[in-house]
Write a structure and sequence with these properties.
globular, single chain, Diaminopimelate Epimerase, Chain A, domain 1, 21 strands, 22% strand, 8-stranded mixed beta sheet, 17 helices, 542 residues, alpha/beta, 31% helix
C-alpha cells in the first residue's frame, strides 16, 4: 500500500472554503483526492521520493472554480468556423460590416457565414438588412447575438430557408418586420433564430465538437475552472464528451444538463431510467433543463412591467417580453422528469419569467413531494421580495447569472432602469435570507473569466462602472463561495468538490496575488498561474 502523497502544496496561503473558511499552509493529494491538510508539519510526513512538491512561494491557492451553468459545447462548435464578433473585436457597425465582407469573400459557394457574441449595445447598433446584404452578397449569413436569443440574417439566408415577409412567425418566435413597410429587417427572435441555428449547426459532429472542446477547456483551465456544468447539452455533445473521456482527452470535470430543446432527449433519459448523479467524478449527469424565458439585454425576457429605453425597430409598443412554452406543457415535462429522479432546471430571467419557472416547479413538487430537491431557476436575475419569499418557501436554488453583471450590466440598466438594480442579482439579500445562490458565467454568452463576475459581485458595477446597486454588494469570500461550494451544491456534488477538505478532490487554482486582501477594484485583474485537476497540472503559466 502506497502511503506517500502524489502531490504536496506547501509554503503559501491555501483557502479551504470549508464551513469555517480556514486557511492552511499545506495540502497533500493522493490518487486525486486530498488526504491531509494543515500546517507544514502535518503534511510533510507524506512526502516520498516520487512526490511532486509544489512550492507556492507565498502564493494564494483556492478550490477549483465550479461554473455551474455554461455552454462549452456551443462555444466549441463555433470556435473554429464561426466569426467571433464580440465587442473586444468589433466596436462599430462599420467594423462589423467590413469583417463580414472579408469573411464572405473567403466562403465557398453554398457555405454559410456564421458569427457569434455580437452585442449591438457595444458595437454600433443593429445593421439594416440592406447593409448586411451589401456586405455579404449571395453568401447566406447568420449572426447570433451574444445572449443566444436573437440573431441577424441576410436575404440569402432567408431565401435558403424559404422565408419572406409572408411567412408566418413560428410559435414563440418572430421574424421582425419594419412597422411601416412590412419588410423583413433581418432581426429574428427566439425560435425564429433557432431555425437558422439548426441549419448552421447541422454540420456539427461529435468529433468536431470534441476537437473544439479540447481548445475550450485549455482556455478555461487557465482561468482556474476545474468543473463546468454544460447547460442545454444536446445528444451530439453528450457523445463527444464520452468519446473524449474514453480517449483520455477530457481535462475538465463536466456535468451534463440535458437539453429540453432537443426533441426526445429528456424523454429517452427517463425511459432508460437514468437519474441525476449517473456517471463519475469526470463526467456526470447533473439534470435536465428547459428554457422558457429569454434575454433582458435583447429585450425579450418576460417582465410584468414593460421595457424602458431605446426600442428596437419592430419591437411591440408595450413590450413585456415573451415566454417560449405553454404553462401546462412545461409543468407536465418538469413533473415527469422530477418524478423520474432527474434534477429539474428551468430558465427564468425577468420576474414574470421566474414566476413561470416556479409555477412549473411548484406543480412538480405537488405531484411528487421531495425534501432537498434542489430544483433550480437558471439565471434568476430580477428577484423581487415576493419572488425571494416564494423561492425560499419552495426550497429552490437561485442559479444566478452573475456573469451578466460585468458584460451586460449596462444593457440591464438601460432596459430596466436604475431602480430595478436593487433586485437584480441581489446576492447580499439572498445570503442574508439563507437562499442558496451559486453564480455562473453562461459562457460564452458572457466571458468565462470568473474573476470578472466576482469583481462585479463585490463592487456592484458593470464593466464600464455602471451602478448595479451597492446595497447588494458581498464580500470577496462570499462571492467566491458562489463559484465553488454553492456551485457544487447546485449539482449535488458538494461531498466531492467546492472546498478543499480531506476526502474531496484535489482541484486547486493557484493565484498571482492574494484574492482575499487585495483592494476590491483589483479582483478583475487576478490571474491564475497554475490549475490542478485531481492533483494533475492542467494549466501552468508560462
Amino acid at each position: 500500500m502506497r502511503l506517500h502523497a502524489d502531490q504536496i502544496l506547501t509554503g503559501g496561503k491555501i483557502a479551504t472554503l470549508d464551513r469555517d473558511d480556514r486557511f492552511v499552509e499545506a495540502l497533500a493529494i493522493r490518487d486525486g483526492v486530498i488526504v491531509a491538510l494543515g500546517g507544514v508539519g502535518e503534511v510533510d510526513g507524506l512526502r516520498g521520493p516520487e512526490t511532486e512538491v509544489i512550492d507556492l512561494a507565498g502564493a494564494t491557492a483556492i478550490p477549483g472554480i465550479v461554473d455551474s451553468h455554461a455552454h462549452p459545447d456551443a462555444y466549441a462548435a463555433r470556435l473554429t468556423t464561426w466569426e467571433d464578433l464580440s465587442p473586444a473585436r468589433i466596436q462599430s457597425k462599420e467594423a462589423l460590416l467590413a469583417r463580414l465582407s472579408d469573411a464572405a469573400t473567403e466562403k465557398r459557394p453554398g457555405v454559410w457565414l456564421a458569427g457569434y457574441r455580437f452585442n449591438e449595445n457595444k458595437s454600433g447598433g443593429y445593421p439594416t438588412l440592406a447593409e448586411l446584404d451589401g456586405a455579404t452578397g449571395d453568401v447566406p449569413m447568420f449572426i447570433l447575438r451574444t445572449d443566444g436569443h436573437l440573431g441577424l440574417a441576410n436575404s440569402a439566408a432567408f431565401a435558403a430557408l424559404g422565408i419572406d415577409e409572408t411567412t408566418p412567425d413560428p410559435d414563440f418566435g418572430v421574424f421582425d418586420k419594419h412597422p411601416e413597410t412590412g419588410k423583413l429587417t433581418g432581426l429574428v427572435r427566439e425560435t425564429a433564430a433557432h431555425l437558422f441555428l439548426d441549419r448552421v449547426h447541422a454540420q456539427d459532429t461529435p468529433e468536431s465538437i470534441a476537437n473544439g472542446l479540447e481548445r475550450v477547456f485549455q482556455e478555461w483551465a487557465a482561468l482556474g475552472i476545474t468543473t463546468t456544468y454544460n447547460s442545454l447539452t444536446p445528444s451530439r455533445a453528450i457523445q463527444a464528451y464520452q468519446r473524449m473521456k474514453d480517449a483520455g482527452r477530457l481535462k475538465m470535470r463536466v456535468g451534463i444538463i440535458a437539453s429540453g430543446r432537443e426533441d426526445g432527449l429528456i424523454e429517452s433519459l427517463i425511459a432508460a431510467g437514468l437519474r441525476s448523479g449517473f456517471g463519475d467524478d469526470l463526467l456526470r449527469l447533473i439534470g435536465v433543463e428547459w428554457c422558457p424565458d429569454c434575454s433582458t439585454s435583447g429585450r425579450t425576457a418576460a417582465y410584468y412591467e414593460p421595457y424602458i429605453g431605446k426600442r428596437i425597430e419592430g419591437e411591440p409598443d408595450h413590450n413585456t417580453g415573451i415566454l417560449l412554452y405553454e404553462a401546462d406543457d412545461l409543468a407536465a415535462r418538469a413533473a415527469k422528469a422530477h418524478t423520474a429522479g432527474l434534477l429539474v432546471m428551468i430558465e427564468g430571467v425577468g420576474d414574470r419569467g421566474i414566476d413561470f419557472a416556479l409555477d412549473a416547479i411548484e406543480a412538480a413538487l405537488a405531484d411528487h413531494p421531495l425534501d432537498d430537491h434542489r430544483m433550480r431557476v437558471e439565471h434568476c436575475c430580477y428577484v423581487t421580495p415576493e419572488i425571494r419569499a416564494r423561492i425560499k418557501r419552495l426550497g429552490v436554488v437561485d442559479s444566478s447569472a452573475t456573469g451578466f453583471m460585468y458584460d451586460l450590466g449596462d444593457a440591464y440598466i438601460a432596459n430596466r432602469g436604475q431602480e430595478a438594480m436593487r433586485h437584480m442579482w441581489p446576492h447580499r439579500t439572498l445570503i442574508d435570507e439563507g437562499i442558496p445562490a451559486p453564480g455562473h458565467s453562461d459562457a460564452m454568452v458572457c466571458q468565462a473569466n470568473p474573476f470578472l463576475a466576482l469583481w462585479s459581485m463585490v463592487n456592484r458595477k458593470s464593466d464600464t462602472g455602471g451602478d448595479l446597486c451597492r446595497a447588494e454588494a458581498v464580500t470577496p469570500t462570499e462571492a467566491l463561495h458562489a463559484y465553488t461550494t454553492l456551485g457544487a451544491y447546485s449539482g449535488r456534488e458538494e461531498h466531492r468538490k467546492g472546498s478543499l477538505e480531506i476526502g474531496k478532490l484535489g482541484d486547486v487554482a493557484i493565484l498571482d496575488r492574494d484574492y482575499f486582501t487585495i483592494p476590491p477594484e483589483e479582483i478583475r485583474d487576478v490571474r491564475v498561474t497554475r490549475t490542478l485537476l485531481g492533483g494533475e497540472t492542467i494549466f501552468e503559466e508560462g
